[in-house]
Write a structure and sequence with these properties.
2 domains; two-stranded antiparallel ribbon; 7 helices
């Protein structure tokens, strides 16, 4: 982490040295700092702070996080149900139906934080959370909200 902090941030070297001494769970804090500082350098401090807050809510609180990317799907289509692999493709979480099927087969696809077991499972209006959205996750880091339109 220290190497990347020196390369991708403008942090003082003393602070980087302190972060390099961290290990175990504390190392995750150094990684968060790296992500925030690198984002700030590339996109600005406001964008970095917003991204850090969205990540905190999503990963630490398990919230559906209003700051996640959102796409609209017609309510009529959701009422009929859409196959899980097709929805992951349409949402842009997978480049193809085959990629989506492999993601589901390998247990990397989640619907409202629950593993999707079958690639043809129908995702419908019944899956809408109390927030009025459906949360799709591809792996640990790619998340998206589906909003009925």
């Amino acid at each position: 982490v220290g190497r990347f902090l020196r390369l991708f941030t403008e942090m003082p070297l003393d602070d980087i040295a302190r972060l390099e001494r961290l290990d175990g769970q504390e190392l995750n804090e150094a990684k968060k700092i790296l992500a925030t500082e690198a984002t700030a350098l590339l996109h600005g401090r406001d964008a970095a702070d917003a991204a850090a807050e969205t990540a905190r809510r999503t990963f630490e609180e398990g919230a559906s996080a209003a700051g996640l990317p959102t796409i609209d799907i017609p309510q009529a289509e959701l009422s009929e149900g859409i196959a899980a692999f097709e929805l992951f493709r349409r949402a842009g979480l997978c480049a193809s139906g085959g990629e989506a099927r492999r993601l589901i087969k390998n247990r990397g696809a989640r619907l409202n934080d629950q593993v999707i077991e079958q690639d043809t499972a129908a995702i419908s209006m019944a899956d809408i959370s109390a927030d009025g959205v459906i949360k799709l996750s591809a792996g640990k880091k790619r998340h998206l909200l589906i909003r009925p339109a």
